[in-house]
Amino acid sequence: MAKKKKKGGAGGGGGGHDTAGGLRWLLTYADMITLLLGVFIILANIPTKSEEAVSEIGESFEHFFTFLKGGRVGNPVVSGKGGENILPKRSGVVANANPPTPMAIVKKKFIQSFPTQAGTKRMTVIETKQGLTVRFNDMLFFEPNKADISPGSYPLLDQVASLVEEIPNEIKIEGHTDQMPISTAQFPSNWELSVSRAVSVVHYIIYHAKNKAHFPEYKIKRLERRLSASGYGEFQPIDRKNPKAEINRRIDIVVLQPKTEDKNLVEKPEPTISEEIEEKFGIVTEE
């Protein structure tokens, strides 16, 4: 007679069968795969592929998964309340991710172009609501009580002109003096002296564009439209306690905020069809 097979226990551990109790390991495995998938998605969406960024993320995960350093049983996986220390606090990471503003780009260009003058009494760069003010001591360009540009300052002004020419914004050249009175046939007051100095700088920028940068005529006209000169005499001193101080004698190059929606100060606007015809064939077209 054939022997009857013994029946396994009806309840409990499943008696070797693949019951729900025997497949619980699959849930843990699925959770681990999901976590790994999340890790790979994060790594794939890193804004920059630099080793520094990858290293920072690795450190963050290392803080979270303490078993990577052989964490002991009983040690907390994450310190702090509510997991506040999962990621290390790094100030400035968000700010560095944002692109610099157009004015910040121009400011950086001026500072890099004048490393020996920037940040000294001879030159300062200031961001204001009006725009960007690049301030030069007047002694860099002029002799006392004169409005003719000193030949020794030509290389410095060439650098200034090169930067001004590539900025499509309106630019004001402002002249300022101290409170020392002046009364000559050419300059009856400090107003005339400050205006003449500002105009001299404007003329030099145009001269540089024509004879050194070799701009075509339509670019010269565009540059002339963007430039203006003004003189304030001694009436806008920086050091109000000492109106005769040297710091009050200066030339300010003011890059005004763009009036249009186009905020990009780096890209040069493309010439119009009439400007291209004028440049290539010398035919002046009416606007």
Keyphrases for this structure?
287 residues, alpha+beta, 60s Ribosomal Protein L30, Chain: A, 2 domains, disordered C terminus, five-stranded mixed sheet, single chain, 5 strands
Gist of the model:
The chain is α+β, with helices and mostly antiparallel strands. It is 37% helix and 10% strand. A five-stranded mixed beta sheet has the order 1-2-5-3-4.
Task: Explain what this protein looks like in three dimensions.
The termini are far apart. This protein has a 5-stranded mixed β-sheet. The protein folds into 2 domains: 21-96, no CATH class; 102-281, 2-Layer Sandwich (60s Ribosomal Protein L30, Chain: A), CATH 3.30.1330. The chain is an alpha+beta fold. Strand 1 (123-127) and strand 2 (131-137) form a beta hairpin. It is 37% helix and 10% strand.
SSE blueprint:
Elements: H1 24-44, H2 51-64, H3 93-97, H4 102-113, E1 123-127, E2 131-137, H5 154-165, E3 171-176, H6 190-211, H7 217-226, E4 227-231, E5 250-256, H8 273-281
Parallel strand pairs: 3-4
Antiparallel strand pairs: 1-2, 2-5, 3-5
Helix pairs in contact: 5-6
